[in-house]
Design goal:
The complex is a heterodimer of chains A (302) and B (222).
Chain A (H helix, E strand, L loop, with lengths): L5 H11 L3 H11 L5 H24 L12 H10 L7 H18 L3 E3 L9 H13 L3 H21 L4 H4 L1 H19 L4 H15 L15 H20 L8 H14 L16 H11 L2 H5 L3 E2 L1
Helix pairs in contact in A: 2-7, 3-5, 3-7, 4-5, 5-6, 5-11, 6-7, 6-9, 6-11, 7-9, 9-10, 9-11, 10-11, 10-12
Chain B lengths: L5 H4 L3 E3 L3 H18 L5 E6 L1 H6 L5 H9 L12 H8 L2 E6 L10 E8 L4 E11 L2 E7 L2 E5 L5 E7 L4 H11 L4 E8 L5 E8 L5 H8 L4 E7 L1
The chains are: A mainly alpha (302), B alpha+beta (222).
Chain lengths: 302, 222
Amino acid sequence: MAFSSGEELIRLCEAEGISISEAMLRAEVERGKQNREEVLDFARKTLEVMRKSYQEPLEKPVKSIGGIMNGEGHKLAQRLKNGENLCGPLVTKAIAYSMSVMEQNSAMGCVVAAPTAGSSGVMPGVFFAMQEERGLSDDELIKGFLCAGAVGYLYMRNASVAGAEAGCQAEIGAASAMTAAAVVEMCGGTPAQALSASAISISNLLGLVCDPIAGLVQYPCQMRNAMGASNALTCAEIVLSGTMGIVPFDEMLDTMYKIGKDMPSSLRETALGGCAATPTGCKWRNKIFGSKESKDGKESKE
Amino acid sequence: MPDIGLFDVIGPWMVGPSSSHTAGACRMASTALKIFGKEPEEVKFTLYGSFAETYRGHGSDKALLGGVMGFDTFDIRIRDSFELAEKRGLKYRFIEDHETKTAHPNTVRIELIADGGESRLVTTAVSIGGGKIKIIRLDEVDVNFTGEFPTLILKHCNVPGVISYFTGILSDYSVNISSMRCYAEPDGKTSYSIIESEQPIGSEIIKDIRSNKLILNSILIQ
């Protein structure tokens, strides 16, 4: 890649007079696997998979394994339709769509890991809400897609997007930071503003633990996707108003990763701490899988 | 530094709920299928570590079974893997091993059987996150490859000159080797060489390489 840090990415964009999306597109082409048109074509196809991933459960609510999730996205969309929503339509749609994607994911429907399956609702939630409320074309969304990809690349290269390694701040944290930058670019902000939105987004979610009840990608994951989506919009809004965060992206990413490594393993996707370890979390685990004793019995399926 | 591309960040397309335990599971099994090179009649999955603990909640069993039927990570037929396997007459079995300690928490051993027991392949794979996988054991030999690139696995006599023989043929056909590893069997008589290339490897190349009796077997994954 032509950049290995946020600082290098901004310098590159400023020197060439290009956007983050253009820098990412060029970098991807330079990897030598696909030409420009092929990259754009696959990005468009991926965007369509993302679109379906929220639309399907929104129209036809599905119950997740164990029944923790059951049509939450649909309920939010109904509230918006009835004009009862508190947030404006952009935020309400973003949280409704992002939660729908998680319903799709838990019901073994098709999603796009962005950057992981557990955080796959944030990006499509915000992107398609932006498309409807701001009238963005698919080509504009593809620019956001590429910009999000650049931030996600830095997350993967210089830190981690694995909850098992650095907690939820690495998963929803990454998705939200990627999406915040994308929103800024799609609204005409500069590369420096886009990365500043990412940095603020990371700082907002610092320390967030990965604690799924029963070890399933359901609760609190679904709610956290909604929070990641609204956080992305909030950070973009702050930056677009002219306020920049003080701590730069690279430093924020670095401190996020250090905090992740310092987290006890009970808070890193082991389902032994946080929400998972609450009495109610344990009750759900036993309801879904039976008690620990019977689960350890040898079992095979013919 | 690992090579991370745009669609490694935003991707894969996948049936939920977990990139490591569902998409990764599917890829472990579909890669084992590619190595086996034929439709299995029977398959046994042994699940270790985190897979043994959580496979049902993540649909890892359905994804593994879908993978050996050749389904991709985003094929929603994975949901109905059990029924589809039964329809095909594919026998399957899942064994939870909570005792054996594996180096990686996401480890699965896959045993594929065909031709009434005449053909058999045992692979061990690990799911390393984000849907990415590695094959770490092939029958009795420790290996390390992903199956993402055109990969040629040669079983050959463990004698001097064999490696220069087949690398010479690859060179004659202008196939660039991007990585190559050799592993001797514990008996010291046979070896495995695993060659990864970024270019496709044609069947005429394999035929040329196989013409030497020091080459005992070949498997091409691409």
